[in-house]
C-alpha cells in the first residue's frame, strides 16, 4: 500500500518556514511530505543550521510505496524571484510565495497531492509586492477563491480543544454587526459536516459561545443572543445538529463543560483563540473547513527573528501533517 503524498508550502522565505520544513526530513511520518520551495534556499538554510539533509527532486511518477529515508527530503523546486536573506522581508518575492500556493493547489486538483500543509507567510509583504489593485487577505481566503468555495471556516485544534470561528479577522467594532443568523447557521453546518467527514466523529457535539459578557445577561448586556443566536440554535437543532448554548465565554472553557464536546464555536477571533493557544501554542494546528480538500497549517507566524538561528520549533508543522493524515484517512472511510 502506498503512502499519501502531501504538498508542504514553505511560506515566507525570509522567515522560519524553510527551517521547520527541513525538520520533516527526520519526522518519520507515514506519508510523503513534498516541500514546495526554492531548492537552493533550502540547501543554504540547512547549511546555516548545520543540518545534513539530502534534497531530492520530487518525481510524481515515483512509485507510491516510495518513502524518503531519514535525512532525505523531497522538494518540488520553485525558484525565488529575488535574493533572500534570513530575517529580511523582500516584496519582490511576493509572487514566489503565491506561486507556492498555486502549485500546491494545481497538484491537488490534478490528483498529485492528497492534502496541503502550509508554513507561515507574511501578508504585509505580499501586499507590498502586489500591483496597486491587488490584495491578499490570507491563506484561507486565497484558497477559497482558487477552489471556488463560497464559504470556509477557520478552526484551530490543540491542547485537547477544537475552536472554530464565526468571524475571523475583523476589527472588534465590526463584529456585532457581522454576527447574523444566516452566517451563524452556515458556519455551524460547515463545522458539523467536516467534524463528521474529515474528523470521523459520527455525532458531533458543538458548544456555542455567546457574543456578549455573560451571554447577554438576559438582554441586559446585549440582545444578540436573544435576537440572533438562540433562533439560529433552534433552527439548527431542527436540522438534527447537536449545537448547544449560547454559553458565557468566560466560563465555557472548563473541563466539566468541555468533557462531552467535540468543538467550541466562538463569535470572534480573540474570544476563542487565546484559550486554545495558551493550551497548545507551538503544538496546535490551523484547519480550513469547508474546502473540497484537506488543508492544515501551523498555529504561528513567520518569526523573522528566529530564521536561520536554530531556535525555531517545528512542532506545530509536524502536528499539522499528522492532522492532515488523520483527516485524509477519515475522508477515505466516509467517501467524502
Our measurement of the CA-to-CA distance between the termini, rounded to an integer number of angstroms, reads: 20 Å
Q: Tell me the name of the CATH class of the largest domain.
A: Alpha Beta
In the CATH scheme, what's the topology name of the largest domain? Isopropylmalate Dehydrogenase
Order of helices and strands: EHEHEEHEHHEEHHEHEHHEHEEH
**Count of helical regions:** 12
What's the Cα radius of gyration? 21 Å
Lateral strand order in the biggest sheet: 3-4-2-1-5-12-11-6-7-10-8-9
The overall average pLDDT, rounded, is 94
Would you mind describing this structure in some detail?
With 336 residues, this protein is an alpha/beta fold. It folds into two domains: 1-149 and 292-325, Isopropylmalate Dehydrogenase (3-Layer(aba) Sandwich); 150-290, Isopropylmalate Dehydrogenase (3-Layer(aba) Sandwich), CATH 3.40.718.10. Helices cover 38% and strands 18% of the residues. It contains twelve helices and twelve strands. It has helices spanning 17-22, 39-49, 94-109, 123-129, 139-147, 172-178, 181-197, 224-238, 249-252, 255-258, 269-280, 315-334, and strands spanning 5-9, 32-37, 54-57, 72-77, 115-118, 153-158, 161-165, 205-209, 242-247, 263-266, 285-289, 294-298. Strands 3-4-2-1-5-12-11-6-7-10-8-9 form a twelve-stranded mixed sheet, with helices on both faces. Helix 3 packs across helix 4 (123-129) and helix 7 (181-197) packs across helix 8 (224-238). The radius of gyration is 21 Å and the shape is globular.
Amino acid at each position: 500500500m502506498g503512502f499519501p503524498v502531501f504538498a508542504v508550502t514553505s511560506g515566507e522565505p525570509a522567515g522560519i518556514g524553510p527551517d521547520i520544513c527541513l525538520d520533516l526530513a527526520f519526522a518519520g511520518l507515514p506519508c510523503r511530505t513534498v516541500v514546495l520551495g526554492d531548492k537552493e534556499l533550502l540547501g543554504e538554510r540547512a547549511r546555516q543550521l548545520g543540518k545534513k539533509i539530502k534534497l531530492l527532486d520530487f518525481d510524481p511518477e515515483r512509485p507510491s510505496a516510495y518513502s524518503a529515508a531519514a535525512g532525505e527530503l523531497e522538494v518540488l523546486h520553485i525558484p525565488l524571484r529575488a535574493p533572500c536573506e534570513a530575517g529580511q522581508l523582500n516584496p519582490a518575492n511576493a509572487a514566489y510565495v503565491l506561486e507556492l500556493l498555486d502549485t500546491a493547489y494545481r497538484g491537488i486538483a490534478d490528483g498529485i497531492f492528497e492534502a496541503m500543509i502550509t508554513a507561515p507567510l507574511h501578508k504585509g509583504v505580499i501586499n507590498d509586492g502586489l500591483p496597486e489593485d491587488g490584495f491578499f487577505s490570507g491563506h484561507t481566503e486565497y484558497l477559497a477563491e482558487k477552489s471556488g468555495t463560497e464559504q470556509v471556516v477557520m478552526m484551530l485544534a490543540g491542547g485537547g480543544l477544537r475552536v472554530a470561528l464565526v468571524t475571523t479577522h475583523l476589527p472588534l467594532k465590526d463584529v456585532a454587526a457581522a454576527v447574523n443568523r444566516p452566517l451563524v447557521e452556515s458556519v455551524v453546518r460547515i463545522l458539523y459536516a467536516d467534524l463528521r467527514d474529515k474528523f470521523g466523529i459520527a455525532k458531533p457535539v458543538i458548544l456555542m459561545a455567546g457574543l456578549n459578557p455573560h451571554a447577554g445577561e438576559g438582554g441586559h448586556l446585549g440582545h444578540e443572543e436573544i435576537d440572533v443566536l438562540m433562533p439560529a440554535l433552534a433552527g439548527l437543532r431542527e436540522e438534527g445538529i447537536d449545537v448547544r448554548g449560547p454559553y458565557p465565554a468566560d466560563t465555557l472553557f472548563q473541563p466539566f463543560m468541555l468533557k462531552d464536546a467535540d468543538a467550541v464555536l466562538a463569535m470572534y477571533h480573540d474570544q476563542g483563540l487565546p484559550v486554545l493557544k495558551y493550551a497548545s501554542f507551538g503544538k496546535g494546528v490551523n484547519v480550513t473547513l469547508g474546502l473540497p480538500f484537506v488543508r492544515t497549517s501551523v498555529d504561528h507566524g513567520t518569526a523573522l527573528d528566529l530564521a536561520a538561528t536554530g531556535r525555531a520549533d517545528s512542532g506545530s508543522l509536524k502536528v499539522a501533517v499528522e492532522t492532515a493524515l488523520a483527516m485524509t484517512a477519515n475522508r477515505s472511510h466516509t467517501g467524502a
